[in-house]
Amino acid sequence: VWDLSTVVATIPGDFNGDGHVNVIDLLILAQTWNLSAGDPGYDARADANGDNVVNVVDLLTLAQNWNT
After folding, report:
1. Quick check: 65 and 29 in contact, CB under 8 A?
2. Dist CA 9 CA 55 (whole Å)
3. pTM for the full predicted model
């Protein structure tokens, strides 16, 4: 039995989970830019594609969904 009340839709690039892709998400990405898992300051929320590196691929994901 599926309980759809617990399903949370996310927008790729919405790193803080507030339902919008905006400057707050860009700041999260900027603070962990070019860092990898294990590096001090790495924030996995900004790793949109889950490859353990915050880079241009994650920025492009944010840009594609900007202002949604």
Report:
1. no
2. 24
3. 0.85
Q: Which amino acid is at 25?
A: D
Find the helix or strand (DSSP H, E) in which 38 lies.
none
**Pairwise CA distance, residues 16 & 36, whole Å:** 19
Contact indicator for 65, 15 with CB cutoff of 8 Å: no
Q: How far apart are CA 54 and CA 38, in angstroms?
A: 12
* C-alpha triplet 56, 27, 20: angle, nearest 5°: 90
Per-residue pLDDT of the chain (68 residues; tens, 9 = 90+): 555 565 566 899 999 999 999 999 999 999 999 999 999 999 999 999 999 999 999 999 999 999 98
Closest CA to 61 of 15, 7, 9, 8: 15
